[in-house]
């Protein structure tokens, strides 16, 4: 993931992922941008700091912790910081 500062103090995250193809020499790369304005970052920050993380913190199994964290994260991130391909 790369991050760059854009106009007016906003930030931009770029997530790179490759798509498997049948050709061993060519692959398709999808670039997803997630513009992060100061306002959107503050909203995300508020969500992260005020979310009750009990289902993550009180579980001993690391795989369950990971699953619970990403369940909440992936459910909230697109609404607060929508992506653009």
UniProtKB/TrEMBL annotation:
Segments of this protein annotated with the region Disordered: 1-24
Biased composition (Basic and acidic residues): 1-10
Compositional bias of kind Polar residues: 15-24
Highest taxon of the lineage: Eukaryota
Identification of the protein by name: Uncharacterized protein
Organism name: Portunus trituberculatus (Swimming crab)
